[in-house]
Amino acid sequence: MAEAPGPGRLSLYKAVGSAPWKEVFRQGCLERMRNSRDRLLNRYRQAGGNMPRRSQNTLLVQEVMEEEWSALQSVDSCPEVLTQLEELLDVAELEEIQQEMADQERCILREYEKSLQFDEKCLSVMLAEWEANPLICPVCTKSNVSVSGGVVACPCGLYLPSHSPELTVQKLRACLEDSVSEHSAHCPHTPAFSVAAGPEETPSLLMSCVACDTWAVIL
């Protein structure tokens, strides 16, 4: 179902004689595309992360234009509105609006791809730092952690009492790398680490990701 036009556009639609209708439709389409960013990115991911290579191939443009056209036609409180809407049926002008929306769609996808590349770079840097000795603290990502008697500590304040006396820096590193790799298999974003504990519970090291809304107990 096409969503109803917002209050701002509705007032423009009703200002018969003063509003340039083709421009109103154009601006409405562009605004609806901006507001459909999440839907566009979901469609992009479902397509395997492949951006349309030809200008006439789009993921959401036609759908958004049809929704906006339906919203315009629903504003039928004044007969003059419907009369002026008929003037929009100029193929060349609609194709021009469609091309502008296709450009906006590609711009949104390019920005998303750049953000993914940045996250992948951050993840590579994080893994590279963990592979080098000593082990970088996963919480502050600045200081080195120490493991002694199974206790994990860092100058940043990280302190995890013994979960296992056999825990070593090498085992902790492998545990962190496995957790990050498992997460990256289904989400391209960089996870964060934190410490959590209840009033009478032993602190635990958690890995979480706001992008995919997941979390896991590491230690």
Automatic annotation (TrEMBL):
Pfam families referenced in this protein's UniProt entry, alphabetically: RPA_interact_C, RPA_interact_N
Listed GO biological process terms: protein import into nucleus
InterPro entries: RIP (IPR028156), RPA_interact_C_dom (IPR028159), RPA_interact_N_dom (IPR028158)
Lineage top rank: taxon: Eukaryota
Keywords: Metal-binding, Nucleus, Zinc, Zinc-finger
Compartments it resides in: Nucleus
GO cellular component labels: PML body
Major subcellular site: nucleus
Molecular functions per Gene Ontology: zinc ion binding
Residue span(s) of domain RPA-interacting protein N-terminal: 11-47
Residue ranges annotated for the RPA-interacting protein C-terminal domain, each copy included: 136-216
Protein's recorded name: RPA-interacting protein isoform 1
Organism: Odobenus rosmarus divergens
Name of the gene encoding the protein in the UniProt record: RPAIN
